[in-house]
Every structure is written in C-alpha cells, then in structure tokens.
Amino acid sequence: MPGNQKSRYVLPAAAAVVLLGVLVGAVACGRHQPASSAQPGLPAGSHSSVGPVLSAEPPVVPTSAAPPPPSPTTAKPTPSRTPSKTAEGAFTVRAPGTGHGPASSLSRTEGTAVALTFDDGPDPTNTPAILQVLRENGVKATFCLVGFRVRDHPELVRQIYADGHTLCNHSWQHLTDLAKRDPSYIDWDLTKTNEAIHAAVGADAPIKYFRAPGGNFTPDLVAKAKSMGMSSIYWDVDPQDWNHKPDKNDQAHIDRVIAQIKGNVRQGSIILSHDNAQPDTIVAYRQLIPWMKRYFTLERLPV
Fold first, then answer.
1. N or C: less crowded end of the chain, CB within 10 Å?
2. 119 is a catalytic site residue
C-alpha cells in the first residue's frame, strides 16, 4: 500500500483516542460534582439545564448570627390638643366662645387669646409669688378675689391692681351653694365683696367679672351678677391644681397640673387655677407660662 494511504488511516485513529479520553473525563466530573455547586433554588439531586457557574463562590453563612430583632409595634400617636400651624405659620383661629358654661356663663374668651385666672386669694404667701412670675414673663391675668380675704389683705389687692391685672368678684366667703341661698343674701354677698375691693383700690376700679364658687352658676345668679354690671365667667381648662392627692408627692402633682394644661389649652381658653394655699401651682406656672407664650397670646380678661 502506498505511503500516503497508510497515513490516511493512522491520523483518524489518534483523534479517536483523544476524543474517548475527553468523554471519559467529562463523565467522571459529573459523578463527583460537589453538592455546593448545585444552583440555588433547586432541590438536592436535581439538575438544571444550564451547567453550574464554575466561577461562583458559595455564600458565607455566619456561624453565630443573631436572630433579627422583632419589628416594633407601631403605637398610635396621642393626638396633640395644641393647635397645628397653618401654611402661613399662624395657628388656626378657633371660633369665639360665648355662653358655653353653666347657665350661659362664659367658658372661653371672645377671641384667640388665652386667659389665666387665679381664684380664692389674695393669699399672703402665694399671691406675691404668682405676681412675680407674671411680672417676669410680661403676662397679665385675672384674679377672682374672695371678699373676706380682700378685707384682710387689701395691700395685696392694691399690688394686683397696680400690676395691671383684671379684678373679679368670687363671693364673700366662697359658699359653693351660694346660688341656693336667699336672694337677699346673694345680693349682700356680691355687694359686700365689691365694696371690699373698692375700699382697697378705689371706687373707680372696674369689677367686670363674677365667678361663682365651684362654678355653680344658675340663671338667677348669672342675672344677678349682670344687674351689677358683671359678666359671669366659667372656664374650659381645669387642671384641678387644688386637688393634691394624698398619695402624690409635690413633683407628681406639679407634673400632673402641667400635663393637664398642656394637653387641653386651646385658642380662647380660660384656664382655672388657684393662688390661695397652692404653692405647687406657682412652680407649675414657672414652666407653663414660657411654654404657652410660644403658642398663644396670654391676656387678662378685658375691662
């Protein structure tokens, strides 16, 4: 056989040997493929139609990974009673308040200003203290005065009036059932209280307001005060600063008073507080007045 024909058969045989080796190696690799090379998402023993990506690295699994923290429960926020601001930066105007207290007494001012009122004085210790707080903050208030205390401390009434605060008749001796008394006594009570106030500060001092002890107004009592030139005032914020519970220390009581006022004051509010025998009220207002001045105009009831 010629030499060129012999070489024609030898070369295909060598190529066949090489091809057989490649096929055997591929089968061996398929039998010993490590489990970590399986594609994510496929169950063990299953195969993808696409071969494994040889360049991919197995994911790193931390040996002591802490469980993720539980999602916090989202509590509903407590709605704020403080008026929200408008786009112009001013508080929304609340409608003027008239005739919302008992027997059509006034529970709110007739505008947006907030009125601070202090009852049951004058008190020789606490009235000068609250006057000092008001003076330091440039705030005017309304003082509802008890007649026999006016008689005993006329100098304090003169100080109240000299500082520009509004005077209010709070009856002669703070009888909470005043409205149930004989009409002749009611007339004497209110007249006697006004006379004591005028004796302290002069007959020209205006007394434009009356507050019934305990806020116990009746139509007849409101009418009586009106016949004497006085509007009857109630309130729409009452922190009960007089109610110092036996199980509460001073700081707890002060915190409660502050929270009650902050949570309920609105434009036009009349806030009821006491300067007689209530030293914690003075402490509370040292914090409250600067806060309220940020949100409201504080004014005395007009005379």
1. N
2. yes
